[in-house]
Design a protein that fits this description.
The complex is a heterotrimer of chains A (348), B (388) and C (87). Helix content of chain A is 31%, strand content 22%. Chain A has an 11-stranded mixed β-sheet. Chain A has a two-stranded antiparallel sheet with strand order 2-6. Chain B has 388 residues and is of the alpha/beta class. Chain C has a single domain, classed as ACP-like (Non-ribosomal Peptide Synthetase Peptidyl Carrier Protein, Chain A, Orthogonal Bundle). In chain C, 55% of the residues lie in helices and 0% in strands. The longest helix of chain C is centred in the first third of the chain and has 15 residues. Chains in contact: A-B, A-C, B-C.
C-alpha cells in the first residue's frame, strides 16, 4: 500500500517555516547555526506555552502548523529525536549533581522526558491514538517513518504526524567539542562544504510531516525509509541497491540524490563519494551548509525533497552536481562516522 | 497475520542476575527495598538496588574493565546475552535490535556536569545510540536494523509492540528487543520532586500506598516468526498489543482510567480474546495513589472481578524504561510456572473497586497474561502473552 | 509587612515561579481560587507553590489536607505565612 506526505513544515536556520527555500540563503560566520524562530504566541495560545522550554516550543509550533496544513487530520503521532530536550536535562542534572538534592522544581525533570513533545502535541490537539518517540541519534527520523508507514498499512492509522527534532545547546556543543566534532575556526556556513578543515558546524531543526494512506492533490509518495547500524562493513552501496530492488526501483531511476555532506574533511569523501559516483544520472544536492549538522538533519533533506517534488526549483546553492532530468524520484542518503547509515526515497 | 513467538528471555534486576534467580526470588517472596548503597545520593529513601558493583557486573557481562562504564549498559549486556543464548541464536543470525532506556546511560552522563574535562570517557554516552551500539558489538553483530524507543515508563513495552508488529507484518523474522535502566540521581530526584517517591517502600494497590520505589533492571526477549521459530522451545506467543495516548496531563493519568481502558480493550481485540480469557494481569501498579486507582478502575471495568491481578514492582521497584520488558518476562514466567505472582508487600488491599489482588503466590490455570505499562506523557500500553 | 503588601509580593513571586508572565499582579484576584476555574493551576503548580513557601518563607507544608487549605487563594497563603513564617 502506498503512503503519502500530505503536508511538510520545517523550522530551520533558513526562513523555511514560510514554505520555501530563500533566494539568498542566510549565512553567518561561527561554529553553529540557530533556527529562524517564529513568534510562538501567534501560533500557540500563550497559556499553553507556559512551562515550555525552547525545543518544546519549536516542536509544538512546527507540529501545529503541519496539522493545520494537512487536508487529512492525524490520528497518531511519532516523533524522532537524536538528543531530546537537553537544556532541561542539564538543568535538572546540575541541580541534583551538586549534592543539594532537595527543593528541586519538577518542571525541568518533566520537560526533559524524551516523549514530552509527543505527549504535548497529543494533549494540545486531542490526538488519542498511537504515540511513539524514537531516541536514536542519526536514524530517529527513519525509524519514525518506518513505523508510520507500517501503521498506515495496518489500517491502525489513516494519517500519522511524524516529526524530527533536535536543538542546539551550549552544553551539547561543548561536550562534542571535547571529542573534536566541530570546526576549530569560525566558518561561514556557505563555505562549509569546501571541506577544507576537520569538523563541522552544529545546527538544529524541527520538521513535521503528515503521512497518510490517502493521496491528495499535492501529495508526495514516500516509498521507503531504512537505516542500520554498520560496524565496519564496506557494503553500503550493495545495501542501498538491494533495498531499491526490494522496492522495485533501479539506480537509474534516481533523478536526485541528496547527500548528508557536512564539511568534515576527515570523513566527507569517504562516506559520500562511492554513493555519489554510483548514481551517475542523478543531480546531487547538499543541505548541511544551510542547517548545520544535527542528529535528525536528514529531515531537512526530506522537506527539501518534498518542496522540490511540489515544483519548487532547487536553488543553485544546494546543487553539487547538476543532472539533466527533472526530479521525480529522490533518494536521501545520510551516513555518519558513528556507524549509522540511512536512506529515504520519495517520488511524485 | 503471522504469529509471533518468544524464543528467548533474559533478565537482571534487584532480585536476580538471570531469569532463574528472578524466578527463585519471585517464588520466595524476596525483595529488599532500602536506601541506596551503591548509587551516590543524598536522598534517604528506599530503592530496589542490585547489590553488585559495576566491577562485578563488568566481569559478569564478560567484557574488559573500563575506567568509565555505564551500569545501564551492563544490565543491557547481561540480559541481552542471556536472551540470545536462551533462543540459541548467535550474532551471525540476521536480526533487528530494538532497545529502550530513559537516556543512554543517564547515571554516567549525570557525572559529567561539574568537571567535564575529567569525564571525557563518559561523553560517548551523550550519543543516544551508544548503549545499543555497544550491546550489538558485544554480541558479535556487525550490521543490523535498529530502533531505540523512548516513551518514559512504557518504553520497553512499546519496543515489544513494535517488534511484534514488524514480525506480524512480514518485515522481520527475528528481533532482539528489551530495555535497560540503572538507578540514577536524575530519576530518583525527579520522582522525589514530583512528590511521588515513596518514603517507606512501594506497596502497589495497598490502601496505605505512598508512592513509587525506583529500581534497576535489564530485560530482553527474542521474538521470532512462526517459521523462524520452527523446532525451537517456545516460551509464549505475543498475541495482543495496543498503545494509546490519554492527551490529558504531562505526568498524571486520567482519574477514571480512560486511557488504560482503551489500551486493554484494544489489546484484547488484536489478540481476538475476550476479558474472561485473561488468567493473570501483571499490572503497571507503581504504588502511587493516582496510578493504582486509575488502573484498578480500568481493570475492574474491562475484566472480570475474579481475574488475578498483581504488580511485581513490590519486588523489583519501578525500573522505568526496562519495566515493560522485565514484566513481560515475568508474565511469560507466570505462564511457564502456571503461577500468579503476588503483590509483594501488600498488606491492606484496596477494596473499591473490587479486584482479585494476589496476596501470596498462587497456582492458577494461566493461558493468557495481560501486562500493562503506562508512561509520562499520557502513554498507555497493554501487551498480551499467550501459552503456546 | 501588611497583609496587602504580602499579597502583592506573593503575586509577583507566583507570576515568576509559575511562568505566568502574561499576567500582571493586577490580573490576579487575591481571593479567587488558584486551581480549576480561577487561575487554572494544576498539580505541578501546587508543587511549585509548596516549594515557593519553603524557599521564600521557610515553611514546610507536607500534609495534603493542610496544603489544600493553604493553597485555596493568595489570601489564604498570605494568612498562613503570617501565622507561621518569618515574614
Amino acid at each position: 500500500m502506498a503512503t503519502y506526505i500530505t503536508s511538510a513544515v520545517l523550522l530551520s536556520p533558513q526562513p523555511t517555516f514560510e514554505g520555501a527555500l530563500p533566494e539568498v540563503p542566510f549565512n553567518s560566520r561561527g561554529k553553529h547555526l540557530l533556527c529562524h524562530e517564529p513568534e510562538y504566541k501567534t501560533l500557540i495560545p500563550p497559556a499553553r506555552l507556559r512551562r515550555m522550554n525552547r525545543i518544546l516550543k519549536m516542536g509544538l509550533a512546527t507540529a501545529t502548523q503541519c496539522i493545520n496544513q494537512s487536508e487529512v487530520k492525524p490520528d497518531a503521532i511519532i516523533v524522532g529525536t537524536g538528543q531530546g530536550c537537553t537544556i532541561d536535562l542539564a538543568i535538572f542534572m546540575r541541580s541534583c549533581s551538586e549534592g543539594v538534592e532537595e527543593l528541586l522544581s519538577p518542571i525541568p525533570f518533566i520537560n526533559s522526558g524524551h516523549n514530552t513533545l509527543a505527549g504535548r502535541i497529543a494533549m494540545d490537539n486531542q490526538i488519542k491514538g498511537y504515540n511513539m518517540t524514537y531516541l536514536q541519534e542519526n536514524t530517529a527520523l527513519e525509524s519514525a517513518l518506518t513505523d508510520a508507514m507500517m501503521s498506515l498499512e495496518e489500517g491502525k492509522s489513516n494519517c500519522t504526524l511524524v516529526g524530527a527534532i533536535d536543538e542546539y545547546t551550549q552544553l551539547s556543543f561543548d561536550l562534542f567539542d571535547l571529542t573534536n566534532n566541530w570546526r576549530k575556526e569560525d566558518t561561514n556556513n556557505l563555505d562549509l562544504l569546501k571541506a577544507d578543515a576537520p569538523g563541522t558546524i552544529m545546527g538544529e531543526g524541527a520538521a513535521f510531516f503528515c503521512i497518510s494512506n490517502q493521496p491528495t492533490d499535492n501529495s508526495i509518495e514516500i516509498v521507503l525509509s531504512e537505516s542500520r547500524l554498520n560496524i565496519g562493513a564496506d557494503d553500503t552501496l550493495d545495501w542501498i541497491i538491494k533495498i531499491l530492488g526490494n522496492n522495485h526501483l533501479t539506480s537509474n531511476e534516481i533523478d536526485l540524490l541528496i547527500v548528508g555532506r557536512n564539511g568534515d574533511q576527515r570523513h566527507d569523501d569517504a562516506l559520500n563519494a562511492p554513493v555519489e559516483q554510483h548514481f551517475q544520472q542523478a543531480t546531487i544536492a547538499t543541505y548541511k551548509h544551510l542547517c548545520g549538522e544535527y542528529p535528525t538533519a536528514q529531515a531537512f533533506a526530506l522537506w527539501m525533497a518534498t518542496t522540490t517534488l511540489k515544483g519548487q526549483e532547487l536553488p543553485n546553492y544546494c546543487i553539487k552536481r547538476k543532472g539533466t532530468r527533472i526530479p521525480k524520484t529522490i533518494l536521501l542518503y545520510n551516513k555518519s562516522e558513528r556507524n549509522t547509515e540511512s536512506i529515504i526515497v520519495v517520488r511524485k | 497475520m503471522r504469529r509471533v513467538f518468544v524464543t528467548g528471555i533474559g533478565a537482571i534486576s534487584a532480585i536476580g542476575t538471570n531469569v532463574e534467580e528472578n524466578v527463585a526470588n519471585l517464588k520466595a517472596g524476596f525483595s529488599q527495598l532500602a536506601p541506596a548503597k551503591l548509587l551516590k545520593t543524598a536522598l534517604n529513601i528506599p530503592v530496589a538496588e542490585l547489590a553488585l558493583t559495576n566491577a562485578e557486573l563488568t566481569q559478569m557481562a564478560g567484557i574488559e574493565p573500563k575506567e568509565t562504564i555505564s551500569r545501564t549498559l551492563l544490565f543491557g549486556l547481561i540480559a541481552a546475552k542471556e536472551a540470545v543464548a536462551s533462543a540459541k541464536i548467535s550474532g551471525k543470525d540476521e536480526l533487528i535490535f530494538i532497545n529502550s532506556c530513559t537516556g543512554s546511560g543517564i547515571e554516567v552522563i549525570e557525572n559529567i556536569y561539574q568537571t567535564p574535562e575529567q569525564h571525557i570517557g563518559s561523553i560517548p554516552y551523550f550519543h543516544s545510540n551508544e548503549i545499543p551500539l555497544q550491546i550489538i558489538e558485544a554480541l558479535g553483530i556487525s550490521r543490523c536494523r535498529q530502533f531505540n524507543v523512548s516513551t518514559a515508563c512504557s518504553s520497553s513495552a512499546n519496543a515489544i509492540m513494535l517488534a511484534t508488529r514488524l514480525i506480524r507484518n512480514g518485515k522481520a523474522e527475528r528481533i532482539l528487543v528489551g530495555g535497560n535502566d540503572a538507578l540514577s540521581r536524575f530519576s530518583l530526584n525527579g520522582f522525589n520532586a514530583l512528590e511521588i517517591a515513596s518514603p517507606t517502600g512501594c506497596r502497589p494497590f495497598d490502601q496505605q500506598r505512598d508512592g513509587v520505589t525506583l529500581g534497576e533492571a535489564g530485560a530482553y526477549l527474542v521474538l521470532e516468526s512462526e517459521e523462524a521459530a520452527k523446532g525451537k522451545d517456545i516460551y509464549a506467543e505475543v498475541s495482543g498489543y495496543a498503545n494509546v495516548n490519554e492527551a490529558y496531563h504531562p505526568t498524571s493519568t486520567t482519574p477514571d482510567g480512560e486511557g488504560a481502558k482503551t489500551a486493554i480493550t484494544e489489546a484484547l481485540a488484536t489478540a481476538k480474546l475476550s476479558a474472561s480469557d485473561i488468567g493473570y494481569v501483571n499490572a503497571h501498579g507503581t504504588g502511587t495513589q493516582v496510578n493504582d486507582m486509575s488502573e484498578a478502575l480500568a481493570l475492574s471495568h474491562t475484566l472480570g472481578a475474579d481475574t488475578l491481578v498483581s504488580s511485581t514492582k513490590g519486588y523489583t521497584g519501578h525500573t522505568l524504561a526496562a519495566c515493560g520488558a522485565l514484566e513481560a518476562v515475568y508474565s511469560i514466567l507466570a505462564i511457564r510456572e502456571q503461577m500468579a505472582w503476588c503483590n509483594n508487600r501488600l498488606q491492606q488491599p484496596i477494596t473499591e473497586p473490587a479486584l482479585n489482588l494476589v496476596t501470596t503466590n498462587q497456582k492458577a490455570d494461566i493461558e493468557h497474561v495481560l501486562s500493562n505499562s503506562f508512561g509520562f506523557g499520557g502513554n498507555d500500553t497493554s501487551l498480551i502473552f499467550s501459552k503456546v | 509587612m501588611t497583609q496587602e503588601e504580602l499579597i502583592e509580593q506573593l503575586k509577583g513571586q507566583i507570576i515568576k515561579n509559575l511562568s505566568l508572565e502574561d499576567l500582571t499582579p493586577g490580573d490576579i484576584d487575591a481571593d479567587g481560587p488558584l486551581f480549576g476555574e480561577g487561575l487554572g493551576l494544576d498539580s505541578i503548580d501546587a508543587i511549585e507553590l509548596v516549594l515557593l513557601l519553603e524557599k521564600e518563607y521557610g515553611i514546610k507544608v507536607e500534609d495534603p489536607r493542610k496544603r489544600r487549605e493553604v493553597l485555596t487563594s493568595i489570601r489564604t497563603m498570605a494568612k498562613f505565612i503570617e501565622a507561621n513564617g518569618k515574614a
